[in-house]
Write a structure and sequence with these properties.
The protein has about 375 residues and is of the alpha+beta class. It has 12 helices and 16 strands. Strands 13-12-9-10-11-14-16-15 form an 8-stranded antiparallel sheet. The structure holds adenosine monophosphate. The site of adenosine monophosphate has 15 residues, from strand 6 and strand 13.
């Protein structure tokens, strides 16, 4: 029997960024209360939550006290310690479960999980010393990418290695910590599948979304992806199998490379709603954020039907270089939607907001989203 956590209950969110903010907006629309927990104050999630707790993730007493005040806990940020997740789970359900979090928050564990279960990934090695790095590069070849094993997102702790001589310098830059090196993939597309699994094992997905990154940060997403339908289906099937294997409850995003010879390789798994799924907020019957609320509260998952082709462009701090962007220009375009995250300091590379554009075709939506961003400056 699934125990439903009904509207009116309180959802606890570990993390306080824009993902938590948009989840909180979806939750409040359905009559839930939201509490958020992170080390910061005046956060994107805190601004729209009923309660914002500022405490360290390592402060397990504070995590337990937070858990006492909510009916279920979920994440918007996966770099929460497994100890904190376990402390919370002593008191309330934590969804997705701590094991899924443990695996997906660290690249070498995630790679091992994928390889052990036969999911396709890029060739990679875990290295702990500069000598191991040299050996791994000898096997993998260059160009390669080195990524810190833990706590990486938005290209943080990630560097491209062009030559074996580069390796020593980059090892210094990433700070002599455990890392993985992987072969640089010559891909034709980057894709993601945002999907959800309910408490009863039900599965829904938003199909394949096509992503473009700039400086390792997501820049543009379009949906549906402009790829052959059988490839989108294959990506969805891999995602579903990963969720089953993790006994997962909640929203996940699996990122893929599609190689030039048509092979899908899993790049990484994000155990939460994802930037590439932001367009579902405006384009789909149920957004990824509402789906996360439904999944973690044991409600039936919503229909993921996409109503219009859509494109999303991120708005990074650089856009504020010459002052406040010109919102009116962009919003004058039909079917353009603005989302800002309430961040007051527009630092370079910081995700400040995004724009979604809807249109009759994906190409038109993309053109419109790019034009809207262009009009901001
Ligand atoms: P990640 O943090 O692993 O998702 O990497 C961020 C972005 O860097 C990816 O979406 C790609 O655009 C690029 N990237 C990462 N790993 C590779 C790789 N092995 N080959 C080619 N591009 C990569």
């Amino acid at each position: 029997m699934t125990r439903v956590i009904p509207p009116g209950s309180t959802i606890g969110v570990l993390g306080s960024g824009q993902l938590g903010r948009m989840m909180a907006i979806a939750a409040r629309r359905m009559g839930y209360r939201v509490h958020t927990y992170s080390p910061a104050e005046e956060t994107p999630t805190g601004q729209v939550a009923d309660l914002e707790i500022a405490a360290d993730y390592e402060d397990l007493d504070a995590v337990r006290a937070f858990a006492m005040g909510v009916d279920v806990i979920t994440f918007e940020f996966e770099n929460v310690s497994t100890e904190a997740a376990a402390a919370a789970a002593e008191i309330v359900p934590v969804r997705p479960n701590g094991a899924a979090l443990h695996i997906t928050q660290q690249r070498s564990r995630e790679k091992a999980f994928l390889a052990d279960h036969g999911f396709p990934t890029t060739a990679s090695s875990t290295v702990a010393t500069v000598d191991e790095l040299a050996v791994a590069l000898g096997q993998i070849g260059v160009p390669a990418i080195i990524k810190t094993a833990a706590f990486g997102y938005d290209g943080k702790g990630q560097h491209r290695i062009e030559s074996i001589e580069d390796a020593e310098r980059l090892w210094g830059i990433i700070g002599h910590q455990e890392a993985i090196v992987e072969r640089f993939v010559d891909f034709s597309h980057e894709l993601s599948v945002v999907a959800a699994r309910g408490l009863d094992g039900a599965f829904t997905h938003f199909g394949a979304i096509e992503n473009t990154h700039k400086n390792h940060i997501l820049d543009v997403s379009v949906s549906p992806a402009r790829i052959a339908p059988h490839l989108a289906g294959e990506a969805v099937n891999i995602t579903r199998a990963i969720l089953e294997e993790l006994d997962y409850v909640g929203v996940v995003c699996v990122e893929f490379f599609l190689t030039r010879d048509g092979a899908l390789l899993v790049n990484e798994i994000a155990p939460r709603p994802h930037n590439s799924g932001h367009l579902t907020f405006d384009a789909c019957v149920t957004s990824q954020f509402e789906q996360q609320v439904r999944a973690v509260c044991g409600l039936p998952l919503g229909a993921t039907t996409q109503m219009r082709p859509a494109a999303m462009v991120n708005l990074l701090g650089e856009l504020w270089t010459a002052g406040e962007p010109d919102w009116s220009g962009a919003l004058a375009l039909p079917e353009v939607k603005l989302h800002l995250y309430g961040k007051t300091e527009p630092r370079p590379r910081r995700k400040m907001g995004h724009i979604t554009a809807l249109a009759d075709t994906v190409d038109e939506a993309l053109e419109k989203a790019l034009a809207a961003r262009e009009l901001l400056t």
